[in-house]
Amino acid sequence: MRVGLDIRALQTYHRYRGIGVVLTEFLKAIELAPDDHLVLFRYDHEAPEAEFALPEGVSWEVVSLGQPPTQPLVRAVLGTLRPGGRLDVSEHRLNVFVQPDSANGLPTGAPVVTIAYDLIPLIFAAHYQPRMSLGALRRLGVKGLIGGHLRAYLYRWQLRQLARADRVIAISDATRRDLLLHLPALPPDRVSVIPLAANAAYAPTDERTAHAKYGVTKPYLLYTGGVDFRKNVVGLVDAFHELRATKDCQLVLVGKDFVTFDANAQRSLRRLLDTSPYAADIIRPGFIATDELVELYNGAVAFVFPSLYEGFGLPVLEAMASGCPVVTYRNSSLPEVAGEAALLLDEQDDLASALHEVFSDETRRAQMRSAGLKQAARFSWPGTVGQMMAAVRSTARHAN
Fold this sequence. Notes:
Elements: E1 2-6, H1 18-29, E2 37-42, E3 60-64, H2 72-81, E4 96-99, E5 112-116, H3 120-123, H4 125-128, H5 134-163, E6 167-170, H6 173-182, E7 191-193, H7 209-214, E8 220-224, H8 233-244, E9 250-254, H9 257-260, H10 267-274, E10 282-286, H11 290-299, E11 302-305, H12 314-321, E12 326-329, H13 334-338, E13 343-345, H14 351-360, H15 362-376, H16 381-399
Parallel strand pairs: 1-2, 1-4, 2-3, 4-5, 5-6, 6-7, 8-9, 8-11, 9-10, 11-12, 12-13
Helix pairs in contact: 2-5, 8-14, 12-15
């Protein structure tokens, strides 16, 4: 069996996000038969395959797709408008093509398996797809407003790509439900649910060198992730303010967005953090290495993830695998991931009171740590990749 795989996400900002994580773990755990052959499709400005070790004995080759576009958003829009502009892989005689990033489009010339992570830009269209209005113009500027509309157009095109795939792998039951609700053209029997997993590096450890490096000197709450509205970071900071009024503690916010604050919409969060009466106790280390993040998970009183919606919620699993108590919300895929191991809140619940409860009850935290480790052990990348490859083989057989 000849399997094509698009690895361009490893050459973009997606490398450190969900798509990049899936690709990296897929390549580390992939198991192929002796007569199988892997064909990697990538840009030719770098060789990401040199940075990961494919399992010994895997037969593979690389196909270059040229240089990445200098104006990726504009080029991508033009590509969707050009008839016959999709990648044609027929000359490579593939039995199946795996597309982990449907934003790159689905190729012609082979049956396609693609991965669906979430439908967040569609479900929260009012936030992610700006309307043409004077208010939006003031908030985003001309460039931001035009870029937002181009991205919205591309996203609708991407959804149409999903509907024509031979097999769609949804990373959670919640994502599958959303796909079938919002994409009526997608037959239910084409959609499989295969959950993600935490990297094996996330595990209990006694190391605490990262704490001194980043100025963590008190009991602390931890958050890692983005800062867009659905992450509800403002709600987390407000809850920390209430907790900090009675508990001498810190809040550690991990992620590059807490340092760069690139988007105009993030300015209010930056002001909130900069002017906080407890600003000295809000630690913002930016993006950090995995081994340091593991240490911070292990030392935290709790990992707090008050997200309003997640396609999977991988940080919850990483925290539990590290032995960290988790506080999160009962929405979207989060109950699937957390099971009964986390403190699950409804969005109208008082987050500050819940954090105070966890802070004050060591016995409860110990129970949450134990339950979290057991819950995390139910997920593994070898198991996930094995299920993915079974879906890939099934798709190839069905097509043939």
